Amino acid sequence: MINFDYVRVSTIKAAVDAIVKDNNSLWLAGGTNLVDLMKKGVMTPQKLVDINNLPLKEIKKEGNKLIIGALALNSTVADNELVRKEQPLLALAVQAGASAQLRNMATVGGNMMQRTRCPYFYNTDMPCNKREPGTGCGALKGFNRMHAIFTDTEKCIAVHPSDMSVGLVALDATVLLSGPRGDRRIPFQNFHRLPGNLPQKDNTLERGELIVAVEIPENKLNKHVHYLKVRDRTSYAFALVSAAVAVDLEGSTIKDIRLALGGVAHKPWRLTEVENFLKGKAATEVNYKQAAALAIRGAKGFGLNNFKLKLAPNTLVEALKTATGKS
Ligand code: SF4
Fold first, then answer.
1. Sorted alphabetically, which PANTHER family does this protein's record hold (predicted)?
2. Of 22, 184, 257, 285, which has the most beta carbons under 10 Å away?
């Protein structure tokens, strides 16, 4: 690990100023991913700006919105009474992520900012367009078992590793930012991005923009929810595929529904078209299977991850059945 400077700030303005002033600086929150990346030489900031003292830990209700501070711990979010009552899908998704120890350190903002776990990204001897643009993608013809089946390019087929973000994208969350040019809001769906020509860029943040909170609008999707994460071991592993499902049922008719997949793309994968297909239909396995076939349209395997072309629709069907009690 290289030597680096360390400063601690206690206001949002000081946090933003410190990053804008110094191009080689990064914010440090829980550090559960960043410190690993620094140890491996994948990220080499010359200065860390510790933001843990910022007043961004609160979880509260404002009007009909649930606001979760960017520095709220993952374990706090998963256990919070308001979250569990009003947005149980989020609690389940957060609970599915990482280990208890990591959830006790990791923050909401840091969870969104974590980097892919593609092994080529972490090995500085291997080609990787995300770590070093223009060097190629080691995973494309290599060990790509964990990789994307939806992508807009073959320059990078990495997946975003966050479970929490799959829940947030399904719940129509908004990301609240503060930056050098003032405050900004980004719909969660537009926060993470597909790799395109800039695989090194995971999200649409501009330099110096700090995640302050996420906001989730009230909904009636808190009774029939499920987050199904399929992974190699149940104790602690990233998703091969995950499915976030929240349904508003009227009798056995689907009145409203939110769906997203994880482990399939460079960003959490919202399934708006599939939601529209299911709205107004009966909550039956037949309809779920048709919906899953629609969900997988346009997907493509790259060899070792071909199994995801079956696993993803099957995971969605199982999650829908569990959420709506049809299993
Ligand atoms: Fe790098 Fe992305 Fe290819 Fe992995 S998939 S080697 S992160 S470019």
1. XANTHINE DEHYDROGENASE FAD-BINDING SUBUNIT XDHB-RELATED, XANTHINE DEHYDROGENASE SUBUNIT C-RELATED
2. 257
User: From atom 2 of ligand 1, which residue's Cα is the shortest distance away?
Assistant: 156
CATH number at residue 274: 3.30.390.50
* Assigned token pair, 86: 């009003």
At residue 136, the pLDDT reads: 98
How far, in Å, from the CA of 307 to the mean position of ligand 1? 19
Q: Which domain holds residue 269?
A: 224-324
Helix (H, G, I), strand (E, B) or coil at 136: coil
Confidence of residue 6 (pLDDT cuts 50, 70, 90): very high
Backbone angles phi, psi at 26, to 5 degrees: -140, 150
Q: Does 309 reside within a domain?
A: yes
CA 251 – CA 109 distance, rounded (Å): 38
**158 C-alpha to ligand 1 centroid (Å):** 5
CA distance readout (Å), 291 to 89, 245, 315: 20, 13, 12
CB 130 near ligand 1, within 6 Å: yes
pLDDT digits (tens, 9 = 90+) for 159-168: 999 999 999 9
For 86-143, what is each residue's pLDDT tens digit? 999 999 999 999 999 999 999 999 999 999 999 999 999 999 999 999 999 999 999 9
How many Å apart are CA 222 and CA 162, to the nearest integer? 21
Which of 129, 149, 200 has most ligand 1 atoms within 8 Å of its beta carbon, as the pocket-test mutant? 129
